[in-house]
């Protein structure tokens, strides 16, 4: 008990250091942020490597650190398989980043409205898509944060902590994380948020590397031995090291369900690979560097870091399966999100006894906390930038806002979006909303990617095409998910308990796949093409030529 | 400068919105565009094809993926590792190509 109390104190201490440090960065950033370039794009003075580290920080959410480690710990190989899509996706970004950097100023809306004749509807569509994708992603992160931080502080179901129940502790955590995120964004802008990302990225890589080394050391640096003992401990034997435990499951005697499962997996893979380059918080980060070449270099850095990280996660996941064991992991959190912290404790205990376990647990917990804080800030910043720049500045003020006014609106929008996210996350705090991450990727791929690609490469593309593509991709993804098994109608075949958002008694599912991408991404492209051909407006060939020259040469870039 | 025209970025005089359009006709630009499009198309086909081949094998060729390579390491684990390495290689190749064959052309036109 005394050990646990010291552990808690250490965790609290490290969390406080993180909060104070990042608030310090925010105060400094506030003092040096002058205009729109500073607030939205950090003054465009970050170097390629700096921005690459921040990109990796924006991308590697708690869902990738804790989620993928947990997925590997419980489902073995399929967790690793899942992570590969997140990495390969960056190659799409690598091919597009320079062109996007060269044609935009701050946002996706800038890129899309460069060559069209009618800007306002295009800007509005970009705002709707940016805010929708960001808020869904944000919701997943914040609900996860509530559960996670409570667990990291050692508050279990039914336990009291400082006089609070676990559910109340979740609410408090969500509100605290939300308040911090609003402070970072509203005051620090892109400059503050970027430095927070860089710090978080460094902590995450260092933490993962240290834990990986300790885990491998535990097996005498014999990867085969680690895999073998993970497979043995999982109770699934060799199947643990092969695909199929989670994605594209074979259902004996049910050929239809087997095919549905495999298509569902392909649908997920498609959304992951095509979604990254359309995620608003990633796109906005392309504009924080001086030019297109630096943007390309920053994506290369992100690929290196994200790849290195996903090379380490199997050690964490398989290590947790072997050293912590399935039953202990599931007892803490049924979806395995605490596998990495539990592994840290187990490994720490092996090397340094009780104290070692507490110290390592507190350190990894702090890394996870930093990860959550940094990623949610990136998402709020993307939304508020889009609302202020695209909607307020370009639509409401006809592209002639006072710069100081627009930045003030952006700061206010951060409060608004942050407050909305807090309210939604508190309402959903006890629901399983992990599917929202995959949904955000599917929406980004279906709504944003077609518009980006066709803007850059199709001469005839016009305003009607952009608008139809964005709304078509967004709405089809949403509708398909609402009528999918993640919302209703999926039950555990053994216990009959609901595995969906709604209780088992409610079932209105019509669409068999859990991931909409396979259908909604083609719909997004089709709507974009159909909107272009059906719209009465003719594209301006001169403006397309102008955009092509800017995109490829960097001429006239901001 | 507060309130200057930079925030707008809209058409000021009729021709400003298409200031660089004439460059699109230059021989150098056509070459740059051809090279970029070809390299992007080749790269995208290669990495998407290879990734979905891996996804397809994971979904439909489980017997093959389960074959042992060395000890507990099987084909599935090896191919996953190769995906990560090939992503690095592909990124490196595109970066080198862009630096050698695209950037000098873009520099001349800018």
Automatic annotation (TrEMBL), chain A:
CDD domains per record: SLC5sbd_u4
UniProt topology in membrane: Multi-pass membrane protein
InterPro entries assigned to the protein according to its UniProt record, in alphabetical order: Na/Glc_symporter_sf, Na/solute_symporter, Sodium:Solute_Symporter
Family: Belongs to the sodium:solute symporter (SSF) (TC 2.A.21) family.
Protein name, per record: Cation acetate symporter
Subcellular compartments: Cell membrane
Gene Ontology molecular-function annotations: acetate transmembrane transporter activity; symporter activity
Chief localisation class: membrane
Lineage: Bacteria, Bacillati, Actinomycetota, Actinomycetes, Streptosporangiales
Keywords: Cell membrane, Membrane, Symport, Transmembrane, Transmembrane helix, Transport
Regions crossing the membrane: 12-31, 52-74, 80-97, 125-155, 167-190, 202-221, 265-287, 299-324, 359-387, 408-428, 434-458, 465-487, 517-535
Single GO BP term: plasma membrane acetate transport
Signal peptide: none
Pfam families: SSF (PF00474)
GO annotations of cellular component type: plasma membrane
Domain of life: Bacteria
Automatic annotation (TrEMBL), chain B:
Keyword list, A-Z: Membrane, Transmembrane, Transmembrane helix
UniProt superkingdom: Bacteria
TM spans (from-to): 40-61, 73-97
InterPro entries: DUF485
One Pfam family here: DUF485
Name this polypeptide is given: DUF485 domain-containing protein
Species classification: Bacteria, Bacillati, Actinomycetota, Actinomycetes, Streptosporangiales
């Amino acid at each position: 008990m005394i050990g646990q109390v010291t552990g808690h104190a250490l965790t609290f201490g490290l969390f406080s250091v993180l909060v104070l440090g990042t608030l310090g960065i925010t105060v400094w950033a506030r003092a040096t942020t002058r205009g729109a370039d500073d607030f939205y794009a950090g003054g465009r003075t970050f170097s390629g490597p700096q921005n690459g580290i921040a990109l990796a920080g924006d991308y590697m959410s708690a869902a990738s650190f804790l989620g993928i480690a947990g997925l590997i710990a419980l489902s073995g190989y399929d967790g690793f398989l899942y992570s590969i899509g997140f990495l390969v996706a960056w190659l799409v970004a690598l091919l597009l980043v320079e062109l996007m950097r060269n044609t935009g100023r701050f946002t996706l809306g800038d890129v899309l409205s460069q060559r069209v004749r009618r800007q306002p509807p295009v800007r509005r569509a970009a705002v709707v898509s940016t805010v929708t994708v960001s808020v869904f992603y944000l919701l997943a992160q914040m609900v996860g944060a509530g559960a996670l931080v409570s667990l990291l502080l050692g508050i279990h179901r039914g336990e009291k902590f400082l006089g609070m129940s676990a559910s109340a502790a979740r609410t408090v955590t969500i509100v605290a994380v939300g308040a911090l995120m609003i402070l970072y964004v509203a005051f620090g802008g892109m400059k503050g948020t970027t430095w927070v990302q860089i710090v978080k990225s460094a902590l995450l890589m260092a933490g993962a590397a240290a834990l990986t080394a300790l885990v491998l050391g535990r097996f005498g640096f014999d990867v085969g031995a680690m895999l073998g003992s993970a497979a043995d401990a999982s109770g699934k034997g060799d199947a643990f090291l092969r695909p199929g435990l989670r994605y594209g499951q074979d259902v004996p005697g049910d050929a239809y369900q087997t095919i549905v499962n495999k298509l569902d997996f392909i649908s997920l893979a498609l959304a992951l690979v095509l979604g990254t380059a359309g995620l608003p918080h990633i796109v906005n980060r392309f504009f924080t560097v001086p030019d297109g070449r630096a943007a390309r270099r920053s994506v290369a850095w992100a690929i290196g870091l994200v790849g290195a990280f996903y090379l380490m996660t199997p050690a964490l996941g398989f290590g947790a399966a072997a050293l912590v064991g399935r039953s202990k992991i599931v007892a803490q959190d049924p979806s395995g999100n605490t596998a990495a912290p539990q592994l840290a404790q187990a490994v720490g205990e092996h090397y340094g006894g009780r104290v070692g376990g507490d110290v390592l647990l507190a350190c990894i917990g702090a890394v996870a906390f930093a990860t959550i804080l940094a990623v949610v800030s990136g998402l709020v910043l993307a939304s508020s930038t889009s609302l202020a720049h695209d909607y307020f500045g370009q639509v409401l003020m006809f592209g002639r806002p006072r710069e100081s006014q627009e930045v003030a609106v952006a700061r206010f929008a951060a409060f608004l979006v942050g407050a909305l996210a807090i309210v939604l996350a508190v309402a959903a705090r006890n629901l399983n909303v992990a599917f929202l991450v995959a949904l955000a990727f599917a929406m980004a791929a279906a709504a944003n990617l077609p518009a980006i690609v066709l803007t850059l490469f199709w001469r005839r593309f016009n305003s009607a095409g952009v608008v139809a593509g964005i709304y078509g991709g967004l709405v089809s993804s949403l509708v398909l998910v609402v009528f999918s098994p993640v919302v209703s109608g999926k039950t555990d075949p053994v216990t009959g308990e609901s595995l969906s958002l709604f209780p088992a008694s409610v079932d209105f599912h019509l669409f068999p796949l859990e991931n909409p991408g396979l259908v909604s991404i083609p719909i997004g492209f089709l709507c974009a093409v159909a909107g272009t051909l059906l719209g009465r407006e003719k594209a301006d060939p001169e403006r397309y030529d102008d955009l092509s020259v800017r995109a490829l040469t960097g001429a006239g870039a901001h | 400068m507060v309130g200057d025209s930079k925030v707008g970025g809209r058409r000021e005089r009729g021709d400003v919105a298409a200031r660089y359009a004439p460059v699109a006709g230059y021989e150098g630009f056509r070459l740059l565009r051809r090279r970029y499009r070809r390299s992007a198309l080749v790269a995208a086909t290669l990495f998407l094809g290879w990734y979905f081949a891996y996804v397809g094998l994971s979904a439909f060729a489980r017997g093959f993926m389960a074959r042992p390579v060395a000890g507990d390491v099987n084909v599935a684990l090896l191919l996953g590792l190769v995906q990560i390495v090939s992503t690095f290689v592909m990124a490196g190749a595109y970066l080198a190509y862009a630096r050698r064959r695209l950037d000098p052309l873009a520099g001349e036109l800018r």
